[in-house]
Design a protein that fits this description.
mainly alpha; 2 domains; elongated
Length: 150
Amino acid sequence: MGNYHVRFRGRGRGSSHREPSPLPDGVEDFQEIKIRHSKYAASRFAHEAAPALTRFANSSPQGFVNGISAARQQIVARTDEDRDEFLRKRGFSKAETGKIIEKVLLEEHRPPESIFDFVQGITRLARDKTQQDARLDMEGRAKKLLDRVG
């Protein structure tokens, strides 16, 4: 069993279906458990989710930490032209490119140079998107960039 996404549905008057936020890109080995409020819901959840929770508790974040470290070390742009070219070659419009660089300048107080800097700028720009599909698309593009680090 893998990652769990649990949805609970209430029954009776006044109950509502609460949709959780979508899972982030990159979630692997995902399995959804749908449990209705019933007499045995709690024990069923404990039985089905326990192995995944145990694996998660015993897992190491080292792979994630190594990926972030590698992204910080991989310098891809040193000049303004390099920055524009780097983003434009990856499908970002001229307007998006300017906004991404601006976000990094505002938050990091320096221009983006590494893959990590660009990913930070892209995800920061994505947070400004009000339409969920556009936000997820932008975050997916940042993930692809981060996944290429090696």
